[in-house]
Protein backbone atom coordinates (compact mmCIF):
# COMPACT_ATOMS: atom_id res chain seq x y z
CA UNK A 1 0.00 0.00 0.00
CA UNK A 2 1.08 3.56 -0.69
CA UNK A 3 0.94 6.50 1.71
CA UNK A 4 -0.04 10.08 0.94
CA UNK A 5 3.62 11.07 1.03
CA UNK A 6 4.56 8.40 -1.50
CA UNK A 7 1.80 9.52 -3.88
CA UNK A 8 2.94 13.11 -3.51
CA UNK A 9 6.49 12.08 -4.40
CA UNK A 10 5.44 9.96 -7.40
CA UNK A 11 3.29 12.69 -8.96
CA UNK A 12 5.26 15.71 -7.72
CA UNK A 13 2.30 17.27 -5.91
CA UNK A 14 1.80 18.28 -2.31
CA UNK A 15 0.37 15.95 0.29
CA UNK A 16 -2.19 18.67 0.95
CA UNK A 17 -3.52 18.21 -2.61
CA UNK A 18 -3.99 14.44 -2.08
CA UNK A 19 -5.79 15.03 1.22
CA UNK A 20 -8.00 17.70 -0.38
CA UNK A 21 -9.07 15.31 -3.15
CA UNK A 22 -10.11 12.85 -0.44
CA UNK A 23 -12.01 15.51 1.50
CA UNK A 24 -14.07 16.54 -1.54
CA UNK A 25 -14.79 12.97 -2.59
CA UNK A 26 -12.65 12.98 -5.73
CA UNK A 27 -9.89 10.50 -4.87
CA UNK A 28 -10.33 8.44 -1.74
CA UNK A 29 -7.89 5.99 -0.11
CA UNK A 30 -8.53 2.27 -0.32
CA UNK A 31 -8.23 2.02 3.45
CA UNK A 32 -7.66 4.22 6.48
CA UNK A 33 -5.59 3.03 9.41
CA UNK A 34 -7.71 2.33 12.46
CA UNK A 35 -5.18 3.58 14.95
CA UNK A 36 -3.35 6.39 13.18
CA UNK A 37 -6.00 7.31 10.57
CA UNK A 38 -3.29 7.24 7.88
CA UNK A 39 -4.59 7.03 4.33
CA UNK A 40 -3.41 4.08 2.25
CA UNK A 41 -3.75 3.70 -1.51
CA UNK A 42 -3.31 0.71 -3.79
CA UNK A 43 -1.06 0.67 -6.85
CA UNK A 44 -4.16 0.09 -9.01
CA UNK A 45 -5.34 3.62 -8.09
CA UNK A 46 -2.30 5.30 -9.64
CA UNK A 47 -3.73 5.61 -13.22
CA UNK A 48 -6.86 7.26 -11.82
CA UNK A 49 -4.85 9.84 -9.89
CA UNK A 50 -2.70 10.52 -12.95
CA UNK A 51 -5.82 11.28 -15.02
CA UNK A 52 -7.26 13.49 -12.30
CA UNK A 53 -4.06 15.51 -12.03
CA UNK A 54 -3.82 15.82 -15.81
CA UNK A 55 -7.41 17.05 -16.14
CA UNK A 56 -6.82 19.57 -13.34
CA UNK A 57 -3.69 20.82 -15.12
CA UNK A 58 -5.84 21.34 -18.22
CA UNK A 59 -8.14 23.64 -16.28
CA UNK A 60 -11.07 21.30 -15.60
CA UNK A 61 -12.71 21.96 -12.25
CA UNK A 62 -12.89 19.45 -9.42
CA UNK A 63 -16.68 19.39 -9.82
CA UNK A 64 -16.42 18.43 -13.49
CA UNK A 65 -13.82 15.73 -12.84
CA UNK A 66 -15.86 14.33 -9.97
CA UNK A 67 -18.88 14.10 -12.26
CA UNK A 68 -16.76 12.30 -14.87
CA UNK A 69 -15.71 9.82 -12.22
CA UNK A 70 -19.24 9.28 -10.96
CA UNK A 71 -20.64 8.55 -14.41
CA UNK A 72 -17.69 6.30 -15.33
CA UNK A 73 -16.25 8.54 -18.02
CA UNK A 74 -12.96 9.00 -16.18
CA UNK A 75 -12.14 5.34 -16.84
CA UNK A 76 -13.52 5.12 -20.40
CA UNK A 77 -10.83 6.13 -22.86
CA UNK A 78 -13.13 6.89 -25.81
CA UNK A 79 -15.47 9.15 -23.84
CA UNK A 80 -12.55 10.88 -22.19
CA UNK A 81 -10.95 11.41 -25.60
CA UNK A 82 -14.06 13.25 -26.82
CA UNK A 83 -14.00 15.54 -23.79
CA UNK A 84 -10.29 16.25 -24.20
CA UNK A 85 -10.76 16.97 -27.92
CA UNK A 86 -13.46 19.52 -27.12
CA UNK A 87 -11.21 21.08 -24.49
CA UNK A 88 -8.33 21.16 -26.98
CA UNK A 89 -10.55 23.05 -29.45
CA UNK A 90 -11.42 25.55 -26.72
CA UNK A 91 -7.73 26.04 -25.89
CA UNK A 92 -6.92 26.49 -29.58
CA UNK A 93 -9.60 29.17 -29.87
CA UNK A 94 -8.09 31.02 -26.90
CA UNK A 95 -4.63 30.72 -28.49
CA UNK A 96 -5.93 32.13 -31.78
CA UNK A 97 -7.44 35.11 -29.96
CA UNK A 98 -4.19 35.70 -28.07
CA UNK A 99 -2.19 35.48 -31.31
CA UNK A 100 -4.43 38.10 -32.91
CA UNK A 101 -3.91 40.35 -29.90
CA UNK A 102 -0.16 39.74 -30.09
CA UNK A 103 -0.11 40.62 -33.80
CA UNK A 104 -2.05 43.81 -33.08
CA UNK A 105 0.37 44.80 -30.32
CA UNK A 106 3.39 44.11 -32.54
CA UNK A 107 1.83 46.12 -35.34
CA UNK A 108 1.21 49.05 -33.00
CA UNK A 109 4.85 48.86 -31.84
CA UNK A 110 5.95 48.98 -35.48
CA UNK A 111 3.57 51.84 -36.16
CA UNK A 112 4.88 53.84 -33.20
CA UNK A 113 8.48 53.06 -34.14
CA UNK A 114 8.14 53.90 -37.82
CA UNK A 115 5.69 56.80 -37.90
CA UNK A 116 8.35 59.35 -37.10
CA UNK A 117 10.85 58.28 -39.72
CA UNK A 118 9.01 57.18 -42.86
CA UNK A 119 8.86 59.77 -45.59
CA UNK A 120 6.34 59.08 -48.35
CA UNK A 121 6.54 61.40 -51.32
CA UNK A 122 3.04 62.28 -52.58
CA UNK A 123 2.03 62.93 -56.15
CA UNK A 124 0.32 66.27 -56.66
CA UNK A 125 -2.45 66.04 -59.25
CA UNK A 126 -5.24 68.23 -60.50
CA UNK A 127 -8.33 66.12 -61.19
CA UNK A 128 -11.36 67.30 -63.09
CA UNK A 129 -14.85 66.64 -61.78
CA UNK A 130 -16.29 63.15 -62.17
CA UNK A 131 -19.33 61.12 -61.14
CA UNK A 132 -19.43 57.87 -59.19
CA UNK A 133 -22.48 55.62 -58.87
CA UNK A 134 -22.61 53.02 -56.15
CA UNK A 135 -23.88 52.07 -52.71
CA UNK A 136 -23.85 54.49 -49.79
CA UNK A 137 -22.86 53.93 -46.16
CA UNK A 138 -23.65 56.28 -43.30
CA UNK A 139 -23.06 55.43 -39.66
CA UNK A 140 -26.41 56.86 -38.55
CA UNK A 141 -28.57 54.87 -40.94
CA UNK A 142 -26.50 51.98 -42.30
CA UNK A 143 -26.20 48.51 -40.82
CA UNK A 144 -22.72 47.07 -40.40
CA UNK A 145 -19.47 48.72 -41.36
CA UNK A 146 -17.99 50.04 -44.61
CA UNK A 147 -16.36 46.69 -45.43
CA UNK A 148 -19.72 44.90 -45.24
CA UNK A 149 -21.22 47.53 -47.54
CA UNK A 150 -18.37 46.96 -50.03
CA UNK A 151 -19.12 43.23 -49.98
CA UNK A 152 -22.78 43.98 -50.72
CA UNK A 153 -21.85 46.36 -53.53
CA UNK A 154 -19.62 43.77 -55.19
CA UNK A 155 -22.62 41.45 -55.54
CA UNK A 156 -24.31 44.18 -57.62
CA UNK A 157 -21.28 45.66 -59.35
CA UNK A 158 -22.24 43.91 -62.60
CA UNK A 159 -25.23 46.26 -62.93
CA UNK A 160 -22.82 49.15 -63.52
CA UNK A 161 -20.12 47.46 -65.60
CA UNK A 162 -21.71 48.37 -68.99
CA UNK A 163 -21.49 52.07 -68.03
CA UNK A 164 -18.11 52.00 -66.29
CA UNK A 165 -15.86 54.73 -67.74
CA UNK A 166 -12.70 53.42 -66.07
CA UNK A 167 -12.30 49.63 -66.42
CA UNK A 168 -10.36 48.00 -63.55
CA UNK A 169 -10.99 51.04 -61.31
CA UNK A 170 -13.29 51.29 -58.28
CA UNK A 171 -13.79 54.26 -55.99
CA UNK A 172 -14.45 54.77 -52.31
CA UNK A 173 -15.75 58.31 -51.95
CA UNK A 174 -15.75 59.97 -48.53
CA UNK A 175 -18.21 62.87 -48.30
CA UNK A 176 -17.91 65.16 -45.24
CA UNK A 177 -21.12 66.07 -43.47
CA UNK A 178 -22.25 68.30 -40.63
CA UNK A 179 -20.91 67.88 -37.11
CA UNK A 180 -17.91 65.87 -38.31
CA UNK A 181 -20.05 63.06 -39.69
CA UNK A 182 -19.46 61.61 -43.16
CA UNK A 183 -20.99 59.39 -45.82
CA UNK A 184 -19.14 56.90 -47.98
CA UNK A 185 -20.01 55.64 -51.45
CA UNK A 186 -18.41 52.51 -52.95
CA UNK A 187 -18.85 52.52 -56.69
CA UNK A 188 -17.68 52.94 -60.26
CA UNK A 189 -17.14 56.02 -62.37
CA UNK A 190 -20.00 56.51 -64.88
CA UNK A 191 -21.78 59.42 -66.55
CA UNK A 192 -24.37 59.28 -63.76
CA UNK A 193 -27.34 58.91 -66.11
CA UNK A 194 -28.22 55.41 -64.94
CA UNK A 195 -28.56 54.80 -61.21
CA UNK A 196 -29.83 51.32 -60.28
CA UNK A 197 -32.43 51.06 -57.53
CA UNK A 198 -30.84 51.18 -54.09
CA UNK A 199 -27.76 53.00 -55.33
CA UNK A 200 -26.67 56.62 -55.15
CA UNK A 201 -24.51 58.94 -57.22
CA UNK A 202 -22.04 61.64 -56.25
CA UNK A 203 -20.39 64.21 -58.46
CA UNK A 204 -16.92 65.05 -57.18
CA UNK A 205 -15.96 68.64 -58.09
CA UNK A 206 -12.62 69.63 -59.67
CA UNK A 207 -9.89 69.59 -57.05
CA UNK A 208 -6.16 69.49 -56.48
CA UNK A 209 -5.00 66.42 -54.53
CA UNK A 210 -1.99 64.99 -52.78
CA UNK A 211 -1.98 61.30 -53.68
CA UNK A 212 -0.49 58.78 -51.26
CA UNK A 213 -0.29 54.99 -51.65
CA UNK A 214 -1.55 52.80 -48.84
CA UNK A 215 0.06 49.37 -48.50
CA UNK A 216 -1.60 46.36 -46.86
CA UNK A 217 -4.96 45.61 -45.26
CA UNK A 218 -7.76 48.15 -45.66
CA UNK A 219 -8.31 47.87 -41.90
CA UNK A 220 -5.20 50.02 -41.48
CA UNK A 221 -6.18 52.83 -43.83
CA UNK A 222 -6.91 54.93 -40.76
CA UNK A 223 -3.29 54.61 -39.64
CA UNK A 224 -2.06 55.78 -43.04
CA UNK A 225 -4.51 58.70 -42.96
CA UNK A 226 -3.21 59.65 -39.51
CA UNK A 227 0.35 59.76 -40.84
CA UNK A 228 -0.75 61.74 -43.88
CA UNK A 229 -2.33 64.54 -41.84
CA UNK A 230 0.07 64.49 -38.90
CA UNK A 231 3.38 63.87 -40.64
CA UNK A 232 3.55 63.74 -44.42
CA UNK A 233 1.46 66.76 -45.45
CA UNK A 234 3.31 69.13 -43.08
CA UNK A 235 6.63 67.59 -44.10
CA UNK A 236 6.00 68.57 -47.73
CA UNK A 237 4.51 71.95 -46.91
CA UNK A 238 1.04 70.93 -48.10
CA UNK A 239 -2.15 72.32 -46.60
CA UNK A 240 -5.23 70.04 -46.50
CA UNK A 241 -8.55 71.62 -47.33
CA UNK A 242 -12.11 70.60 -46.61
CA UNK A 243 -13.67 68.58 -49.37
CA UNK A 244 -14.24 65.10 -50.68
CA UNK A 245 -11.36 62.66 -50.34
CA UNK A 246 -11.43 59.25 -51.96
CA UNK A 247 -9.77 55.87 -52.37
CA UNK A 248 -8.85 54.58 -55.82
CA UNK A 249 -8.70 50.80 -56.25
CA UNK A 250 -6.98 49.39 -59.34
CA UNK A 251 -5.13 46.25 -60.45
CA UNK A 252 -2.69 46.61 -57.51
CA UNK A 253 -5.49 45.85 -55.05
CA UNK A 254 -5.35 42.15 -54.11
CA UNK A 255 -8.09 42.01 -51.47
CA UNK A 256 -9.21 43.74 -48.29
CA UNK A 257 -7.06 41.58 -45.98
CA UNK A 258 -4.13 41.01 -48.33
CA UNK A 259 -0.92 42.56 -47.02
CA UNK A 260 0.35 42.96 -50.59
CA UNK A 261 -2.59 45.16 -51.60
CA UNK A 262 -2.05 48.75 -52.69
CA UNK A 263 -4.53 51.56 -53.18
CA UNK A 264 -4.25 55.31 -53.66
CA UNK A 265 -5.61 57.89 -51.23
CA UNK A 266 -6.56 61.23 -52.76
CA UNK A 267 -6.40 64.02 -50.15
CA UNK A 268 -7.76 67.43 -51.17
CA UNK A 269 -5.22 70.23 -50.71
CA UNK A 270 -5.29 73.96 -51.22
CA UNK A 271 -3.90 75.39 -54.44
CA UNK A 272 -1.52 77.70 -52.60
From TrEMBL:
InterPro entries: AraC_E-bd (IPR010499), Cass2 (IPR029441), DNA-bd_dom_put_sf (IPR009061), MerR-type_HTH_dom (IPR000551), Reg_factor_effector_dom_sf (IPR011256), YobU-like_regulator (IPR053182)
SUPFAM superfamilies in UniProt: Probable bacterial effector-binding domain, Putative DNA-binding domain
HTH merR-type domain residues: 1-71
Domain of life: Bacteria
Pfam families named among the record's database cross-references: Cass2, MerR_1
Protein name: GyrI-like domain-containing protein
Source organism of this protein record: Paenibacillus septentrionalis
